[in-house]
Amino acid sequence: MNLVTDICGESLKSKPRFILLNPHTHNFFSHSLATFLIGYPNFKKLRYIAECLEDDFELHALVEKNQSSIRRLEKFNLGKLEFYLWRRFFFKRKIKSIDKKNINPEDILFITCKNISYSGISNLNSLKCNFLISTNHYMTLSKKIADELKRFQNEFTYLSELKTVNLSFFKTYFPKKEEITTGYEISSRFSSSRPFEDRENKILALGSITYLQSGESDILLNKKINTYHPDREYLFKNHLNSKLIESKISINNQQSFRENFLTAIFKNFFKFLLPKQKSYYSFDLVKELNNYKFVIYPGDVFDNIPKGVFEAMACGCIVLGPKHHSFSDNGLMDKINYISYGEELNIEKLDNLVEFLINNEKDKLNQISKNSIKYTEMLQKRELFRKVSNLIKKKYQKKV
C-alpha cells in the first residue's frame, strides 16, 4: 500500500496510481512529436481516461528510454527527453514519470493497442501490478496485438468505449478476459438546436473511407478485404441512386504516416504551396446534423459502432443502423432510440423504410429523437468522467 506521512507522523493512505505506458509515442492522449511534425490529426481518443481519473488517482507514466514517436530516434534512447517535451508542450497536465522498479502490485498500468503494435509487451512480464488494456484501435495489426496478448504472462482486463469482447472478430482472435465499458465521450457542442419536425425528411450519410495498405491490418488483407469501411464505400458509390440520401462520406486521404517521414514533414510545413484537398471535417458537422431527421453512419468491418453515431443522437437525429447485437449490447434498441434497416444495407430498401416512417409514424419518430438525446446525456463530459472513475475504482478498490 502506498503511504504518506502527515505532519503529526501518522500514516495516511495516498491516492492509487494510474500509470500510462509510453504515452508520448502516439496521439491518443495528445499530439506526439511525430504527429505534430507531419501534421497528422490530434485524435486524443483516450485523453478522457487521464482527465477523468485526475481527482481520484495519481497520474504517472512508465517511460522506456528506447521508445519514441519517431522510430528513427529510438536507437538514441531519447524516450525520456521526448516525454518531458511531450508533457510540457502537448499534454500540459500533471503527470509524473515512474521507473519499473517502483511499480507496486496495487498500481494500475494502462496499455494501448498502439503500445502493443509498436513494441510488444513481453518486456512487462516481470511486473507485478494491475494491467488494463485499451481495445481502442485493436483493428490495426490485429494478429500481432492478439498474439502478444495471448503470450502475455500476467492477468489483465480490457477497457473499451463500447462492448467489444462479444464481437465475432474479437472473440475469434483475442484472449477472453473481463471488460470494463465506459462509453464514448460526447462533446457538449453536439446538441439539438432545431426542432425535429422542422428538419429535412432526408438521410445524411457520414463517415470517411480508409483503404488498407500493406502491413496495416494483417488479418483483413489475408481475407482480401481492401477497406475498413465497406458499407461506407457502398453508400459513397451508390448514394445518387437514392431519393433521400445526401452523402458527406469522403475518402480518407491522410497519407502522412504512409510516406517517408522527412517528406511528410516537408509537406506539412509547406502545405500552403500544395493543392488543397477537401477534408471530411471541413463543414460544420453540428449544424449539418441539425438539418436532418435521419443519419446513417456505417461502422467498420469489425462491427464496431463509430462515435459519430452517438454524436448524431445527441443532436436529435434518428440513427439508421443494422440489426446486430453490437447495437443491443450497448443499449441501442430498434424503434426506441434508433431504427434498424435489417441485417444488410440496401439503398432501395432504406428509401422505402424511411418513406414509410415519414408518412405513417410521425409521432413515433419524434419520440425516438427524444429518446436518442436522453440516451446520450450520460455520455456528456461530467457524467462520463464520474462513471469511468467509479468503474475503475470499483474494479480495483479491494486492491488499492
Can you give a write-up of this model?
The chain has 400 residues and is of the alpha/beta class. 34% of the residues lie in helices and 15% in strands. The protein contains 15 helices and 16 strands. The strands form 4 sheets. It has a 7-stranded parallel beta sheet with strand order 5-4-3-6-7-8-9. A 5-stranded parallel beta sheet has the order 12-10-14-15-16, sandwiched between helices. A two-stranded antiparallel ribbon has the order 1-2. The chain starts with a strand and ends with a helix.
CA distance, first residue to last residue: 7 Å
Helix content: 25-40%
Shape: globular
Residue-averaged pLDDT = 88
Reading side by side through the largest sheet, how are the strands ordered? 5-4-3-6-7-8-9
Structural class: alpha/beta
DSSP E strands, number: 16
Biggest beta-sheet profile: 7 strands, parallel
| Number of helical segments with 4 or more residues | 15
Cα radius of gyration in angstroms: 23 Å
The percentage of residues in β strands lies in: 15-25%
Low-confidence parts, pLDDT < 50 over ≥5 residues? 1-12
Secondary-structure map:
Layout: E1 3-5, E2 11-13, E3 17-21, H1 33-38, H2 47-52, E4 58-62, H3 79-91, E5 96-98, E6 108-111, H4 113-119, E7 130-134, H5 142-151, E8 156-160, H6 168-173, E9 179-181, E10 200-205, E11 208-209, H7 218-222, H8 230-238, E12 245-247, E13 250-251, H9 261-269, H10 285-289, E14 292-296, H11 307-314, E15 318-321, H12 325-329, E16 339-340, H13 347-360, H14 362-376, H15 381-396
Helix pairs in contact: 11-14
